[in-house]
Amino acid sequence: MIPVASRYVLRRSLFGYDINKKGTPQGTVKVPESLGIVVGIIFLVLAIVFQYFNFTADSNWLVEYNAALASICFMILLGFVDDVLDVPWRVKLLLPSFATLPLLMAYAGHTTIIIPKPLIPYVGLEVLDLGWIYKLYMALLAVFCTNSINIHAGLNGLEVGQTVVIAFAIMVHNIMQIGASSNPEYQQAHAFSIYLVQPLLATSLALLSYNWYPSSVFVGDTYTVFAGMTMAVVGILGHYSETLLIFFLPQVLNFLLSVPQLFGFVKCPRHRLPRFNPETGLLTGTPDGTLVNFYLRIFGPKSEKSLCIHLLIVQAVGCCFCFLLRYLLAGWYK
User: Fold this and answer.
1) SS3 call for 32
2) Where, by residue number, does the polypeptide cross the bilayer (predicted)?
């Protein structure tokens, strides 16, 4: 579907130029934009049809499953609107909070958190019911995950590549938790997560083959917000949001580096990309607060492909660190 859709979006003048190749023949090529819409539609069709084979009409999970799909669908729509209308950053930050409404309204799970064992003597409780605060936390997590993929971007293959790495880590985590537990409800929560993250991983791999350096398509905000919302939804309904945030460690760092510019303390340019040198073909870091520029300032100029591979390795190391942390803290922390 991607090559077919590429022709249609070009016809409607939905294209962009690769800024990281400015000054070279590749920098003048019209690259089809917003191809995340194709991945989003295929994902939704697969996830909807899957219900027929897995859930019974009286399944307790059916309402939350459809609410999750409604939130993801809403986010795909808002992402595509953003690609077409070029929504300002401050508005873009709020869009996921609207998309989470179907999930928040349908959520009937627990609103409790398990207090870490070292803190129990100070809190005086083993389990704390947060009530509406838990739903607010869910909304904020969705806003963060959705925007964090969107702002850690700008290189061929980086947006899709980081999604593939995190989605694979989520898959492994869910399989490990199902194998380690004998609680049917706990197993079902992690199985539910796999039902949504597996098609995300598969469709993202297809898109990565077109978006890898040199990109023949751009994914657009449609894909980044869709991927972020899907991973937020599986983390929330699978009840492992803490683990999810550690999987997002590079994105958290990127967000912290971006805070001064995102909130207007420092001037924020339209594109916070590294500087491309057409003579050497290398990217050099700018003062802008992104992980991409920060990495280049520390390790020096790199080609776009090399830089993307380095950042994806950092992402994979972050995910491995999460598994190590869970192993080391098991039994002591919770």
Assistant:
1) strand
2) 35-53, 65-81, 93-116, 136-153, 160-180, 192-210, 217-238, 244-266, 307-329
